[in-house]
Amino acid sequence: MFFRENGQFKSTYRADMQLLPIVQDRWFMLGVIALAFLAVPFVATDYLFLSIINPFLILTLAAIGLNLLVGYCGQISIGHAAFMAWGAYAAYNLVQRVPMLNFLVVLVLAGLIAALVGMFFGIPSLRIKGLYLAVATLAAQFFTDWIFARVKWFTNYAHSGSVSTAPVTLFDWTLDTPRDKYLFLLGVLIVFTLIAKNLTRGHLGRAWMATRDMDVAAEVIGIRPVYAKLTAFGVSSFYCGVAGALWGFLQLGSWEPLAFDLNLSFSLLFMIIIGGMGSILGSYLGAAFIVVLPIALNQIPRKIGVPLSTAMAANVEFMIFGSLIVLFLVLEPHGLARLWAIGKEKLRLWPFPH
Amino acid sequence: MSIPRYAPVAILGVLLAAGLVAPLATGETAPGFWVEVLIGGLMTGVLYSLVALGFVLIFKASGVFNFAQGAMVLFAALAVARLAERMPVWAAVLATVAIMVMLAFIVERIVLRPLVNQEGVVLLMATLGITFFLNGFGQAVWGSDIYEINLGIPREPMMVLGKVFEGGVLVNRDDIAAALAAVLLVGALAVFFRRTATGRALRAVADDHQAAQSIGIPLNRIWVIVWSVAGIVAIVGGVIWGGKLGVQFSISQVALKALPVVILGGFESVPGAIVGGLIIGVGEKMAEVFLAPPLIKAFDLAGGGIENWFAYVLALLFLLVRPEGLFGERRIDRV
């Protein structure tokens, strides 16, 4: 980078273990956060908030959740939109049935309910692993799709099967403009990112990573697989549950079970593949990529004067998605986060690499 | 006293069999209708088996969990349907065979070869990429409407066993053709695997990659062959399915049902794919017809549709008692 970290010595364990050990990194991060809180709300338009920034924030949260499970604990899931659905419907029912609850409490409770469901569907992971587990998680996806489409109690006997929500009020702050939603989402995401980052650095995260790298060996050195795998499923579903509740209440407003179908699960998976498995930063990059790509694909042909029909645009999007995934796996299996790290390392020595 | 190893499987089997005959035992269901549902389930099962067969072939030979099999079925069906508009059906099928072999070459060259020695999960995700690409590419090239494949089989159902059951049993002719085609295909595959040098090489690779390579079997060529064979299986599945339901995008979704089939039967087992397909097919049809109405009544549901998840839950239950599937190989983990 265009700065040097020489002369920054760590003289305490605290200093050695802090999140961003380099002074410049800390200032950079603070700058980014300040920019996000103070500059973006005044610069971005409503369209930008609604179609790019807010979905990006929510899906990042979900991607972090999935990354904790797949990237850190090595338990692959192709049904994670199901847990988002559980979070969304849990939040809906809580708001409907217990109206005096604060939305923050609702969010946490929705996350907890999703975590319980996630741990239930995680039980097979104790017996089966790898590809078998991947298929087993599809059971969660299809069962969830069905239960919210068919069991009327969950949708509060809504006629069309779709549910709709009123704007969220936090204390005296009504989140009705995209900008308000953005500020709230940003706060939630920062808190959850910090928690996730610290979880993965701590005891639990190490247990997960040991299980990922070799579960039998992890068991031998005293990590209980039940504990490691079920906590991973629980925490991951908690994140997705919260993300699902936010997606329902702050992004969609009204939704039906199809909003959380298999395609969303695949999108989440692609985010962490493209962004980088086992990396929190990767969840951000991947989510940004997946959110922006369809919009870019929609806009670019129009800009350069070759308008595609909607169907053709969808097909081209499929093709580009598919090719990119293969390309990433072949060229850089660790995703955008790894590219970022490589770039940083190169810049650190630049312009005198020797 | 120790519980025998097969006890949980036996218990689950007995439960399933009991569920199967329960509608008959209550006496509310006409036996003829029950047989019709059973046959319908078996026919759906045959289709699942055909897709599952493609999975198993590729998994055996290359250890790749080919998520793209469903997309390959759709792609093949679309190709046959659209080509058949310009040429006779047999020519269209031949042309599609050529296309699928070409596809196998491309997949091997671009996806598998660079990813050799990667973990199974990475390969699974690569095939997810292939799935998306094929779905987009197929519909971009061939169009995304609903197309028909006309195989020249009369549509009206046949009445059989009129003497045994009151009212007889209705059977679709194309279902019978599908079952016959499936039997022929499995027979041909069995001969191919047992009697030809290539087939033996395939089995050797499936058994042990390194050993096979060390005696001079070219892995890359084997992969091309096995993906081609899976492509041809996909054509058969796609043509039968397309002839029945019309060629449309939902085929690639329905083909996901082949996943519970392979976990039920075991990833490495061809007979497992067949038996698993039949169990899943019958199980979900029976569940939809006989189990859904009482469920709807009991829980006040907004309609049935339990066949969407029944297969997965059945497979999941099965995995809990027997993680390697019906005919799968037992794995022993070592540090």
Task: Describe the protein's architecture and organization.
The complex is a heterodimer of chains A (354) and B (335). Chain A is mostly helical and 354 residues long. Chain A has one domain: ABC transporter involved in vitamin B12 uptake, BtuC (Orthogonal Bundle), CATH 1.10.3470. Chain A is built from 14 helices and four strands. The longest helix of chain A is centred in the last third of the chain and has 28 residues, at 225-252. The mean pLDDT of chain A is 86. Chain B is mostly helical. Chain B has a domain at 31-258. A two-stranded antiparallel sheet of chain B has the order 1-2. In chain B, helix 11 (258-265) packs across helix 12 (270-299).
CATH architecture of chain A: Orthogonal Bundle
At CATH level 3, the topology of chain A is ABC transporter involved in vitamin B12 uptake, BtuC
Instruction: Please work out how many helical segments of chain B DSSP would assign.
Output: 13
Radius of gyration of chain A: 21 Å
Cα distance spanning the termini of chain B: 31 Å
Biggest interface: A-B, 51 and 51 residues
Tell me the Rg of chain B in angstroms: 21 Å
Head-to-tail CA distance between termini of chain A:
15 Å
